[in-house]
Amino acid sequence: MRSLRVPFLLVMVLFAAAPLYGLLKISLSPPGEVMTAHPTLVPHGITWRHWQRVIESGQIGAPLRKSLLVASGTTALALLLAGPAAYSLVQLPLRWRYGVLIGLFLCRMLPEVSVAMPIAVVFLRWGLMDTALGLTLAHLPMALPVAAWVLTTAFGNIPRDVEEAAALDGCNLWRTLAYVIIPLALPGVIVAALLVWLLSWEEFVLATYLTLGDKTMPLQVYYYLYQGNAFVTAVAAVIMTVPVLLLSALLQRFIRETSLAGVVR
Amino acid sequence: MKWRHHSLTLVPAFNTPRLRSLTRYAGLCLGLAPLTLYLAALTLVPVSSTLLLSLQTPQGDWGLAAYRAIISHYQFGEAVANTLLVTALGLGLELALGLAAALALTERRRALGWVRIALLVPLGVPTIVAASAMRYIFGTVGYLNEVLYRLGVIDLPIDWTGSRWLAVVTVAVADAWKVTPLVMLILLAGLQAIPRQLYEAARTDGATPWQQFRRITLPLLRPAITMALIVRGVDAFRIFALPLALTGRNLPVLSTYAYVEYLEYGNPHTAAASSTLLLLMILVAVAAYLKLAGREEALR
Q: Which of these CATH numbers, 3.40.50.1950, 3.20.20.70, 1.10.3720.10, 3.40.50.300, describes B73-299?
């Protein structure tokens, strides 16, 4: 068993990396290397032609903007709604707290298709179809349980004594929040924000139902994929993955920080 | 304690324990209300209206006509079967690979830390990006066929999404690529919670590694495995982007069936009926989980 470990992990790393490598390679390959019965596995030549084509087509700017707007808006609103809820939750008895959190997660397990259809009908009536605001409002229910869960853990890790000390020093609720609670919970807040942002950035089902023409990034990638041009699809997919990789790296750092912080305190 | 700062409590007459706890609970409710109300309005209300819609006919009569219509539709049966097959195969793959990876990574070593980070990368990759990548891997002139050809396994390319069974395998593998890291994380947390002394005691008693795995690791890992199964199972039931992007319309699953019924055929009632059946499947899975998890807790 022991001797199998290194080869197994090597294969797993290869399995994890291969698809991303493939996309990057296609996005930089001359057509002759891909559109053939025997595509090359290692790049023989590199061309920026496909990147140039996607950027000059002007089809990527609008989806990029819309997705950035929706993901950032969802993050801001999710923190705004889940923050007070999480802060209230940690003051409830444990039984209640977990009851509420499990309820939130049950909401998260509902099928998107049965949520999306009525929302689409109502949004069509309200003129929210095809807008960044509408999609943000629709992404929020999916983001809230995640944000609430992470923030509850973050606030729960702060010892009561700290707050009581702040109260004794004459801080009111808002000052305690601004100067004590939020700074102490900051890594957790950042983790919640990153998770929500990533969730909204890649969301596909609700975006499909709530979009007529003004596509988000996932829909644009799907559109390219559907059209069948491998190079353009690969470029768009790589563009979509870059922020994800950056934020994931950040996420790993802050997740480590939150768990470490919990031990040290 | 924290809502004591309410201005009313500065007035001695209002500063009784009873009123203090009242204002406190009012504060807590105020904090929880926006989130709860918003969630209710945008999940419970839509889900209920989908349920009601599924029980109506286009003429506005009540009845099970929509359910009868989809059940007699051959593609619906196929969609249910495909959903279950993709879920079963995907979960099996994810559990096997995730458990093996978690076992291989339990030791805390620097090099393993890097491997773990590398293995976590697919988890963050957007589903549609994963689907695009998989399309070029599983394509007829894709990379998998090329690798197999160079290894001398095949002479002629295989059409990986051509037949239904191969398409199920392809979608399950694509799904496993993205979410095995999640299963690995859950199992890793479970493994690290097992006390080391148990293994030491087993070793002094002369237990083989396989016996240790069977008698210690597996039983103590069961809660983590159940948790991974339910979290992933519910997601797999709802699978949407992967089958759509990988096979077009060739592999209907429940979610894409509902989508096609609504957006292509403009029939909200049958779409609602299939969404509701999907919801039912998820509820059954969650109830089974809660029952299993509850029993395990009672045993401890």
A: 1.10.3720.10
The answer to ipTM > 0.85 is: yes
Q: Which two tokens stand for residue B31?
A: 């904090």
pLDDT in tens, B150-177: 888 888 888 888 888 999 999 999 999 9
Residue B233 pLDDT > 60: yes
Domain boundaries in chain A? 1-47, 59-264
- Note the pLDDT tens digit of each residue in A92-151: 888 888 888 888 888 888 999 999 999 999 999 999 999 999 999 999 999 999 999 999
How far is the alpha carbon of B264 from chain A, nearest alpha carbon, in Å? Answer: 12
Q: Does A218 touch chain B (CB under 8 A)?
A: yes
User: Residue B10's pLDDT is what?
Assistant: 56
Chain B residue with Cα closest to A103: B36
Whole-angstrom distance, CA of residue A21 vs CA of residue B125: 13
Q: Give the span between the Cα atoms of B105 and B111, in whole angstroms.
A: 10
Amino acid at the residue A9: L
Asked whether the CA dihedral A92, A95, A96, A98 is positive or negative, the reply is: positive
Amino acid at A26: I
B209 at the A interface (CB within 8 A)?
yes
Q: What span, in angstroms and rounded, lies between the C-alpha atoms of A110 and B154?
A: 43
Per CATH, which fold does A59-264 belong to? MetI-like fold (1.10.3720)
Phi/psi at B195 (nearest 5 deg)? -60, 135
Q: Secondary structure of A59-99 in the HEC alphabet?
A: CCHHHHHHHHHHHHHHHHHHHHHHHHHHHHHCCCCHHHHHH
| DSSP element (H, E) containing A50 | helix A49-57
Distance CA B292, CA A114 (A): 27
How many angstroms separate the most distant Cα atoms in chain A?
Answer: 75
**Contact status of A156 with chain B (Cβ, < 8 Å):** no
Q: B251, B254, B194: which is closest to B219 by C-alpha? A: B194
The residue among A225, A246, A221, A232 whose CA lies nearest residue A28 is: A232
A119 touches chain B (CB under 8 A): yes
Least CA distance to B209: which residue of chain A?
A1
Mean pLDDT of chain B: 87
